[in-house]
């Protein structure tokens, strides 16, 4: 019984695995695996460049600090004091009672060490202090806001179900988003750009909404609207509410948001769950404000304002608002992914149609077919039967690249097709080096088997040297390149690895089969 070499086993195994990974791309019904992902330039989709308003994150931080300062002042019994936020990121505190100045300064030194004192002056018996954050802290908040926005947008898109999105930072304040295959572009933009700041606020019932609309808005309150659309007439109704500015609870404590159907009205709503701390806060809010109306506010829009009938424990709540099922799902997605730390603005938008992608694929495949055909003809004419072996290895090489794209779930782009075409030339280049070495050995009078062994042995180091250096360059391009460059680097890296396998192992297996098993004495080369 003849012994099967490890090269034969390896070749058969690699080709079999490649076929398994490639089957779904040929027919998804044959094998339940993912197909080769096509890039934005091939299947169409959306290209967005977003700019994060990072300064708003600084202002939000100062607003939170101001709220904490007011709570601490109330807790410490410091009453005759006024606080306000000016120019977005500066706090102005006025202490009217001289006897409370030492208490205020002590509180400032112990509880708010992170604040920087810009100005401290006296206006009669009144102490005026201007506070802000140090410049380094502001810059850290801005950088963190962009990073958090990037992760939040990535989480939203992942839950939206886009295959192989390209989301990355571009510069200091910008985020690049590419969504291949997306069809509902407006829905995607709404999902990405929604800040999703969820707040629970009490309605201000000290004055009527009508008086507030005429300009008599009480301090610490504002007018917000509930926007509803009649599904039958498509008319939009705006209902005004007088809402207190102070937020009692935010979506930062959310652990779950899911879509459910109301059994009574058969309408979808979003059910939300809080963590333990959020549940305790929500229970306290509902206990202290029974018979009052609590507004559920998302991005300064009131979704509902129910009356609190009793204390609610367990950390469960629901958001209603005459949603469609799609609107409820999108709302649940943005709530689960979390709020953006700062608003984002779409500053560049491009939509690539699928017809353009189809034309790119056709031209790319045509160029690959023409280039491959020329190479195949050259190898057959110049190296005869050995050229046919090289062409077989070239076919397997392309098969392995395609299987690698499917297996690693990489994205095939137009530059990626260029990388495959380049790989075709590189693959036969390795065979040319081997064949020329074999020719030299045959010219010295050696046997066919000895010539093949010597040819592979002497050409291997040269082939490895050339391909490894190319692979290093491809990996560097992948690490530091942008989208199109990465697409080229992916197929080039896969092509280098597969060409090394086909040139040094697969073709050697074929030669050994004819020279050892079939006892062939001459080589057509």
Could you explain the architecture of this structure?
- This protein has 525 residues and is α+β, with helices and mostly antiparallel strands.
- 53% of the residues lie in helices and 22% in strands.
- The strands form six sheets. A four-stranded antiparallel β-sheet has the order 7-8-2-18. Strands 3-4-6-5 form a four-stranded antiparallel β-sheet, with helices on one face. Strands 12-9-15-16 form a four-stranded antiparallel β-sheet.
- A hairpin with a 6-residue loop joins strand 13 and strand 14.
- The longest helix has 54 residues, at 354-407.
- It is elongated and about 110 Å long.
- It starts with 5 loop residues before the first helix and ends in an 8-residue tail after the last helix.
Question: Topology, please?
Answer:
Elements: H1 6-26, E1 37-38, H2 40-43, E2 45-52, H3 54-75, E3 81-86, E4 90-95, H4 101-111, E5 116-123, E6 126-132, H5 135-160, E7 166-170, E8 174-180, H6 185-193, E9 198-202, H7 209-213, E10 221-229, E11 236-244, E12 249-250, E13 254-261, E14 268-274, H8 276-288, E15 294-298, E16 301-304, E17 316-319, H9 325-337, E18 344-352, H10 354-407, E19 411-412, H11 414-443, H12 448-480, H13 483-517
Parallel strand pairs: 1-19
Antiparallel strand pairs: 2-8, 2-18, 3-4, 4-6, 5-6, 7-8, 9-12, 9-15, 10-11, 13-14, 14-17, 15-16
Helix pairs in contact: 1-10, 3-5, 5-6, 5-9, 10-11, 10-13, 11-12, 11-13, 12-13
């Amino acid at each position: 019984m003849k012994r099967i070499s490890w090269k034969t086993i390896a070749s058969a195994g690699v080709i079999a695995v490649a076929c398994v990974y490639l089957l779904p791309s040929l027919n998804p019904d044959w094998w339940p695996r993912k197909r080769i992902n096509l890039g934005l330039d091939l299947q169409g989709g959306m290209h967005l460049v977003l700019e994060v308003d990072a300064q708003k994150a600084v202002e939000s931080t100062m607003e939170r600090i101001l709220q904490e300062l007011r709570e601490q002042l109330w807790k410490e019994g410091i009453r005759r004091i006024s606080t306000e936020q000016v120019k977005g990121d500066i706090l102005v505190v006025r202490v009217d009672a001289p006897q409370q100045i030492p208490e205020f300064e002590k509180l400032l030194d112990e509880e708010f060490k992170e604040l920087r004192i810009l100005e401290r002056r006296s206006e009669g018996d009144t102490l005026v202090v201007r506070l802000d954050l140090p410049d380094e802290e502001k810059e850290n908040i801005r950088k963190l806001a962009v990073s958090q926005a990037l992760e939040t947008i990535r989480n939203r898109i992942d839950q939206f179900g886009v295959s192989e999105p390209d989301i990355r930072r571009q510069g200091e304040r910008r985020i690049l988003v590419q969504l291949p295959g997306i069809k509902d572009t407006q829905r995607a933009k709404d999902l990405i750009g929604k800040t999703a700041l969820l707040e629970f606020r009490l309605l201000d019932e000290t004055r009527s909404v009508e008086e507030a609309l005429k300009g008599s808005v009480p301090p610490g309150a504002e007018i917000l609207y509930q926007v509803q659309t009649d599904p039958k007439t498509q008319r939009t109704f705006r209902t005004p509410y007088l809402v207190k500015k102070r937020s009692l609870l935010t979506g930062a404590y959310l652990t779950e948001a899911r879509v459910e159907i109301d059994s009574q009205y058969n309408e979808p709503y979003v059910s939300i769950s809080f963590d333990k701390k959020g549940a305790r806060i929500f229970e306290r809010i509902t206990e202290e404000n029974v018979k009052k109306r609590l507004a559920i506010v998302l991005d300064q829009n009131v979704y509902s304002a129910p009356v609190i009938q009793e204390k609610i424990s367990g950390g469960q709540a629901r958001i209603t608002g005459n949603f469609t099922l799609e609107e409820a799902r999108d709302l649940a997605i943005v709530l689960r992914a979390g709020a953006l730390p700062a608003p984002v603005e779409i500053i560049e938008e491009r939509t690539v149609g699928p017809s353009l992608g189809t034309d790119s694929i056709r031209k790319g495949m045509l160029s690959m077919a023409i280039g491959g055909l020329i190479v195949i003809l050259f190898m057959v004419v110049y190296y005869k039967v050995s050229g046919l072996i090289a062409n077989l290895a070239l076919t397997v090489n392309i098969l392995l690249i395609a299987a690698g794209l499917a297996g690693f779930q990489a994205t095939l782009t137009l530059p990626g097709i260029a990388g495959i075409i380049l790989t075709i030339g590189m693959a036969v280049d390795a065979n040319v080096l081997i064949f020329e070495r074999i020719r030299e050995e045959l010219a010295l009078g050696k046997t066919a088997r000895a010539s093949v062994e010597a040819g592979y042995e002497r050409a291997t180091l040269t082939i490895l040297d050339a391909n490894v250096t190319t692979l290093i360059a491809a990996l560097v391009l992948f690490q530091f390149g942008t989208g199109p460059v990465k697409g080229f680097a992916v197929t080039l890296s896969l092509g280098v690895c597969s060409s090394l396998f086909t040139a040094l192992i697969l073709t050697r297996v074929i030669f050994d089969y004819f020279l050892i098993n079939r006892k062939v004495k001459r080589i057509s080369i």
